[in-house]
Design brief:
five-stranded antiparallel beta sheet, mainly beta, 59 residues, 5 strands, 1 helix, 29% strand
Length: 59
């Protein structure tokens, strides 16, 4: 994931900053507890495509 891209992408729900999880290949919104997938190197920033995170994840 290009770090320059991380500086400009935002959560489509709350517009907050996303963090990159290299192991799961996801962009994480800690506010909304959503994990957006990265498919073929392209972030899929569509809310229905996001995975809801459990309360224990991302601590």
């Amino acid at each position: 994931m290009d770090h320059r891209l991380l500086e400009i992408v935002a959560c489509p729900v709350c517009k907050n900053k996303l963090t990159y999880d290299k192991d799961s290949q996801e962009l994480i919104c800690k506010i909304d507890r959503l994990a957006f997938p990265i498919k073929d190197g392209i972030p899929v920033l569509i809310e229905p495509e996001a995975r809801a995170m459990s309360m224990d994840e991302g601590r």
